Inverse folding.
């Protein structure tokens, strides 16, 4: 058992403890974390990881390859600090994944300046995503944590989805997700960047994402802020509901996207509910200070006819208090619209929009519900 001085333990508890909520936490960078104590355990191979995770609270993973078909399991002790150095790469295997699975309570995970988590998606992409072709790992970075900060994480070439989050009181800051290679021959599909579900008190901030599906997607969660996130090539800053046949698993409440941008994407803001799912309520969602650039379908799409897009929306999900404030940008292409709203009968109430302006559309807005403050 490694023993730490009282001062070191106290400082780490302050930095990594139970305060990783929407406000009031203090985060640290890689160099600061590394210098807090000399008692880090270094794993320089996949085989070393299980014993080190079991016996150490302060861990550095350094530059190794995970064998084909194996998950890098990081079941961290309470109050652990985990640092990434060098490149963590995953040998190719046609399986479900995940590639990394992190669990724990009140933890901190930080990437070094030159580290990289490489999913090797270029060996899987076949233009069919998760719905066909070769079997692809569904998650590169899977998180099931209560209380934690994840900071400055670099991820490249996810086979399909990149980051899946389940948990509470979590902050994700400084993520750099790079799937630029996936645009070659349009082979990368279903590469959702950051998705969280069944979660509460989540912050995603100060991040850059290049991918080919939803940039950030919120499912069955509450009390979250997504801020200063910048996306390219994505499918939208997204809210999803109706994915479950169970009514209790469809609610979304108190979500804010602010100071974000999205460009070169299929949609800018994408709000989708699934008619085949159970009942639920989406309440108090705000998009504030959103810049949309060169979107190729709809600048803003709120649809209750997903995924058929057939103009026959359902009212199984109620959408209340949808607020858009200072949402501006451009669309381009012959089939584009600035705004499309397809609400089920009586299912959309109390929407307030202000300073919403999307230009460049070749088709008129298509709205069967009219928000206060916006004419379409």
């Amino acid at each position: 058992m490694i023993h730490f001085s009282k001062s070191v333990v106290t400082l780490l508890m302050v930095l990594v403890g139970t305060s990783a909520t929407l406000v009031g936490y203090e985060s640290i960078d890689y160099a600061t974390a590394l210098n807090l104590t000399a008692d880090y355990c270094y794993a320089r191979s996949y085989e070393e990881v299980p014993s080190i995770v079991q016996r150490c609270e302060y861990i550095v993973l350094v530059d190794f390859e995970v064998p084909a078909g194996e998950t890098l399991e990081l079941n961290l002790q309470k109050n652990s600090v985990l640092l990434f150095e060098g490149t963590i790469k995953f040998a190719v295997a046609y399986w479900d994944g995940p590639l990394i699975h992190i669990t724990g309570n009140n933890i901190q995970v930080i990437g070094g300046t030159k580290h990289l988590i490489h999913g090797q998606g270029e060996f899987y992409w076949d233009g069919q995503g998760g719905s066909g072709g070769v079997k692809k790992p569904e998650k590169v970075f899977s998180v099931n944590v209560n209380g934690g900060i994840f900071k400055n994480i670099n991820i490249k070439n996810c086979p399909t989805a990149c980051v899946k989050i389940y948990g509470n009181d979590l902050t994700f800051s400084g993520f750099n997700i790079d799937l630029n290679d996936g645009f070659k021959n349009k082979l990368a599909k279903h590469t959702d960047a950051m998705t969280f579900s069944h979660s509460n008190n989540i912050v995603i901030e100060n991040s850059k994402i290049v991918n080919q599906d939803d940039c950030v997607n919120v499912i069955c969660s509450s009390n979250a802020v997504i801020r200063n996130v910048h996306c390219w090539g994505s499918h939208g800053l997204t809210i999803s509901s109706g994915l479950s046949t169970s009514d209790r698993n469809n609610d979304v409440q108190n979500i804010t996207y602010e100071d974000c941008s999205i460009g070169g994407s299929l949609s800018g803001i994408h709000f989708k509910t699934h008619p085949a799912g159970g009942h639920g309520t989406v309440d108090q969602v705000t998009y504030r200070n959103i810049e949309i650039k060169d979107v190729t379908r709809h600048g803003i799409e709120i649809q209750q006819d997903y995924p058929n897009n057939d103009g026959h929306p359902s009212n199984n999900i109620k959408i209340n208090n949808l607020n858009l404030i200072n949402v501006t940008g451009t669309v381009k292409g012959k089939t584009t619209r600035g705004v499309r709203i397809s609400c089920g009968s009586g299912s959309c109430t109390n929407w307030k929009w202000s300073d919403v302006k999307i230009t460049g559309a070749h088709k008129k807005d298509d709205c069967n519900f009219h928000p206060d403050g916006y004419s379409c």
